[in-house]
């Protein structure tokens, strides 16, 4: 619809676009220059809601509390973000739903990546830390710390943009820049994580017989475990792609081409995170690790190795180091 349809004689609406409706103002005055798809955003909302229910079931069933906490945070934030986008469908001129979706959808995948880091530390324990550059606990601490730092930057930037007096103010732009810094840090940390995962995979492949011994003692089915590894790769890559997209989107500003391209957003943001969430649910770590997820007892053998016994009815003895 052309702007000529709405002559700028109504200075109140022009200067205070939050008073607009889709019947009284052109979309060029809105927070985004398109009408957010009701069907598309409602579908994503339903998917994240379904994932949350299944994750709660598996998390309680297998007592994977740390993983459940990470995924729960991510899925709830995704749901809030798409509720806000559904609200924007009915009135894209309101600033509160826009800022809500912008902030929560920016930070939500940090929680999903934290769940991936927790899974990787268990994988290192199973295969053997001798194949890794760091101890299992070190991977968790390093990358979850990086995740928290990224999360703080993104949240602080979002809060600064939220409290700015005007969309074009320097304070609002500073907030956007801080969010970009947080997202960029997340991209870098994810890239380093993927590089370390690839290095670990090469070492495991090189010493295949020794590496498979951990799987045998754990009782994890080889086919099921390999499916779980593929799911983690898919989840990591989709979150990485999504994070790169959000950096490019915010770098162009709210008036940029990417920020106002609904198709790009729905594919590179929504679909990527849905795929990651589904992958982490269909191949839930509880289905693979069972009682091994919770390492509840450690002692030192006469050889000086740390013995870890997995929780559950039938504890499994592994001569590796405990993880968080």
TrEMBL record:
TM ranges: 42-60, 67-86, 98-120, 141-160, 180-202, 223-243, 263-293
InterPro entries in alphabetical order: RTA1
Entry keyword set: Membrane, Transmembrane, Transmembrane helix
CC terms in the record's Gene Ontology section: fungal-type vacuole; plasma membrane
Principal location: membrane
Superkingdom, taxonomy of origin: Eukaryota
Subcellular location per the Swiss-Prot or TrEMBL entry: Membrane
Topology in membrane: Multi-pass membrane protein
PANTHER family: PROTEIN RTA1-RELATED, SPHINGOID LONG-CHAIN BASE TRANSPORTER RSB1
Name of this chain's protein: Sphingoid long-chain base transporter RSB1
């Amino acid at each position: 619809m052309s702007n000529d349809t709405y002559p700028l004689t109504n200075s109140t609406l022009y200067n205070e676009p939050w008073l607009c409706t889709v019947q009284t103002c052109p979309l060029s005055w809105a927070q985004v220059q398109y009408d957010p798809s009701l069907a598309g955003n409602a579908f994503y909302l339903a998917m994240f809601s379904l994932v949350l229910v299944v994750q709660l079931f598996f998390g309680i069933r297998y007592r994977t509390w740390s993983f459940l906490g990470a995924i729960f945070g991510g899925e709830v934030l995704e749901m809030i973000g798409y509720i806000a986008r559904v609200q924007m469908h009915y009135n894209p001129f309101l600033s509160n739903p826009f800022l809500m979706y912008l902030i929560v959808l920016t930070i939500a995948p940090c929680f999903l990546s934290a769940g991936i880091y927790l899974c990787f530390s268990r994988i290192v324990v199973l295969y053997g830390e001798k194949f890794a550059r760091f101890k299992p606990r070190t991977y968790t601490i390093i990358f979850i710390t990086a995740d928290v730092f990224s999360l703080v930057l993104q949240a602080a930037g979002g809060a600064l943009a939220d409290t700015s007096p005007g969309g074009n103010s320097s304070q609002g732009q500073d907030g956007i820049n801080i969010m970009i810094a947080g997202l960029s840090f997340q991209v870098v940390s994810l890239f380093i994580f993927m590089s370390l995962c690839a290095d670990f995979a090469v070492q495991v492949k090189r010493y295949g017989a020794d590496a498979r011994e951990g799987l045998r003692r754990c009782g994890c089915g080889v086919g099921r475990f390999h499916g779980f590894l593929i799911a983690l790769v898919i989840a990591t890559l989709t979150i990485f792609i999504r994070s790169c997209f959000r950096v490019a989107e915010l770098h162009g500003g709210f008036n940029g081409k990417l920020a106002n391209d609904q198709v790009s957003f729905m594919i590179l943001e929504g679909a990527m995170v849905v795929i990651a969430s589904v992958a982490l649910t269909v191949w839930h770590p509880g289905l693979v690790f069972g009682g091994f997820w919770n390492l509840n007892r450690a002692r030192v053998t006469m050889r000086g190795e740390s013995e870890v016994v997995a929780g559950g009815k039938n504890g499994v003895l592994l001569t590796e180091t405990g993880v968080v």
